[in-house]
Design goal:
The chain is of the alpha/beta class and about 375 residues long. It is about 40% helix and about 20% strand.
Length: about 375
């Protein structure tokens, strides 16, 4: 099945390209590391025209936030796993002699009482400096990474980034931006959500929220509920309650001109299950458009499988099977409030946003302005 892409997809910069040749100019290399509640992920890339080629990458489930809900601290075993992963990242940075980089940590480090001790351990044992970024910057970087998937027909856009420890939602009004400019208007949000002084047509951020519930933290809150369906329902309703202060919550968003872009392992896993992929294929998943009904069918299938069936399902994968239902509960809550025929699946996120922001600030990416 060939994935459908929204009109306007592929506008600057394009999706991450396949691995570049081994010989590259180190002066042109950039790195972005995202240490989240569940995973440690890094990309090393080289700017090329209006896009970038990935030179090297790393991704590992480290479960840094395991037990954080109960103790408020990062555990010794979580820190040990994470330090080992970060040492692999440091070796890759040294191998490619990367000079331009942003290495960031998110919700787990924002919340943990011992995060400063952890950062000192990273500096001492790994030799890198991690930067804890604020929720607004995390949301902004996720948004700009998804800009190539924004349809030129979209008037109202909701970007959702479901993480391990938090979920960011950003509602954007594009109705005053010329259609052809809409994807690029999203890109310009790297300068900040308040960009009314820009000489270019600008996207209006109506509201944004960082909900302190992600796939790992939501799962931990209901680990004592034995019934699978009841646990799922409780997780979904709790997440919806957390959206009560989100300004567009009561908006009666019609399906025409409304688009949701979802970026997370949950959304890409649901898309892979919808396509029946036994082996994950980013080229088929990234940019796929799904309806509320199609997503609901996949989630109902997950519930019918039960915990044991989900563990054996090759479409879900070993790393994702424990977290897929908490992520699906978040996704179902969103689609219960804002049903749509256009949920675009984004296999991209904070790392790509970090790379774009660095390259854009350095002026090494080409942008064609009409």
């Amino acid at each position: 099945m060939t994935p459908k892409r929204p009109n306007g997809a592929g506008v600057f910069p394009k999706a991450v390209e396949p691995l570049a040749p081994a010989i590259v100019d180190p002066a042109q290399l950039y790195a972005a590391l995202d240490l989240g509640t569940n995973s440690c992920r890094m990309l090393i890339a080289q700017p090329k025209g209006s896009q970038f080629h990935v030179v090297d990458s790393f991704s590992k489930s480290v479960q840094l936030g395991a037990g954080l809900e109960q103790t408020g601290r990062l555990s010794r075993s979580s820190i040990s796993r994470t330090l080992q992963a970060l040492k692999v990242c440091k070796k890759k940075l040294e191998k490619h002699d990367v000079k331009r980089m942003r290495l960031v940590a998110t919700e787990a480090c924002r919340r943990a009482r011992n995060s400063r001790d952890f950062l000192r351990a990273v500096r001492r044992e790994v030799g890198i400096d991690l930067e804890i970024i604020k929720p607004e910057e995390e949301a902004r970087l996720a948004v700009i990474s998804c800009a190539p998937l924004v349809s030129t027909k979209t008037d109202q856009l909701l970007v959702v980034d479901i993480g391990g420890g938090s979920t960011e939602l950003v509602w954007i009004d594009l109705s005053s931006v010329p259609r052809i400019e809409r994807p690029r208007a999203i890109m310009r949000l790297h300068r900040g959500f308040q960009n009314a002084d820009s000489p270019f047509p600008h996207a209006k951020v109506v509201d944004w929220i960082s909900v302190p519930l992600g796939v790992a933290t939501l799962k931990d809150q209901f680990r004592d509920v034995e019934d699978d369906s009841a646990r799922f329902a409780l997780m979904s309703w709790l997440f919806e309650e957390k959206l009560a202060n989100f300004a567009p919550y009561a908006n009666d968003a019609c399906r025409e001109g409304f688009q949701i872009i979802g970026t997370s392992g949950t959304v890409t896993t649901v898309a892979a299950s919808h396509l029946g992929l036994r082996r994950y294929d980013r080229n088929k998943v990234d940019g796929l458009r799904m309806t509320s009904e199609q997503i609901d069918r996949v989630i109902r299938d997950y519930l019918d499988l039960g915990p044991e069936g989900r563990r054996r399902d090759p479409r879900i994968g070993r790393d994702r099977q424990e977290l897929i239902m908490s992520g699906s509960a978040i996704l179902q809550a969103l689609l219960r409030i804002w049903p749509t025929d256009r949920l675009s699946v984004a296999d991209r996120g904070l790392r790509e946003g970090l790379l774009y922001a660095q390259m854009s600030m350095d002026g090494v990416l080409e942008e064609t302005v009409p």
